Amino acid sequence: MSSQDIPEENLPAEHSAGHNEHGEHGAVTVADEKNPFADPGLPPHEHRVQDIDERAAKRSERVVAMLFTVSMLATVGFIASYVAIPHDKSIFVFPIGHINALNFALGLTLGLALFAIGAGAVHWARTLMSDVEIADERHPIEASPEVKAKVMADFKEGAKESALGRRKLIRNTMFGALALFPLSGVMLLRDLGPLPGTKLRHTLWSKGKLLVNMNTNEPLRASDVAVGSLTFAKPEGLEEHDENFQTEIAKAALMIVRIQPDNIKDKRELEWSHEGIVAYSKICTHVGCPISLYEQQTHHVLCPCHQSTFDLSDGARVIFGPAGHALPQLRIGVNDQGYLEALGDFEEPVGPAFWERG
Prior knowledge:
Blueprint: H1 13-16, E1 19-20, E2 23-24, H2 49-52, H3 54-84, E3 90-93, E4 97-100, H4 101-127, H5 145-162, H6 168-180, H7 183-187, E5 211-213, E6 230-235, H8 245-252, E7 254-258, H9 267-271, E8 277-281, E9 293-295, E10 300-302, E11 309-311, E12 317-320, E13 329-330, E14 332-334, E15 340-342
């Protein structure tokens, strides 16, 4: 419904005349010598249905009130979730998977509260607040020369009266206090969580832990790995429904490749392998992306994120791309049952370089 469908006497009185203190709404001015650019004016104002129908305005009012009420309920839900839900509880949410229940509840309720406030404010402004456009003439915003001169004179007088240049003890101690005070805020950063310590240097791999196929969830035998194949493995005992699965697999994920022993160029790589089966970290040493592309003929693996390329037949050294160092190798062997097992942990941190790397 537009204002053209409503009789003139039903339109709001303050809008129906179509005039303001600057003249007729939508009027234009003609260019002349003093004003070479013509003022196109404002477009004719179109009344909204809420301006001419009080029932529609009431409906909009109820919608806004409902959104604000939803925000209040969501805020109460946020507080209740924070108090009632254990921080270590996990739930399954399709299609995300297993996630922390507290984080999910806090994010959902807080997001709903903020969205409802924003949506209510937008609906209020779009349907109930005045939408009449008003032109306001520009005026100079700079101060007059007299005001500028007075401000500068006052500033110089104040600086002189403060004796900051003459009272060096006060000046130096003030600078010291201002420099040290921000350290209080830096100390509060300790509440962000405990320091990582040596966690980044160690993974779940240890002597005797079996290599488990990521796809079949079964321990790997040496006979399961064919020459030229690429297999992804995880440590024995690590399951996808574990709360810390993502944290641990981000450090412990393995690439298993079988290469003819004669084609292995690096001496240590050959010693740490079993019959040409080598195990390298799957985590790229550039920014930590998972490596998944393997070329059989060259034994090169490619990180899909930034194209860092590693040679698995030569100690997984970097041959192309931004990665800073080779992929860490895991020393492996075979137990009495013929299953592949780790002979220890990685001897260096996996993934990108970090400040503790020495």
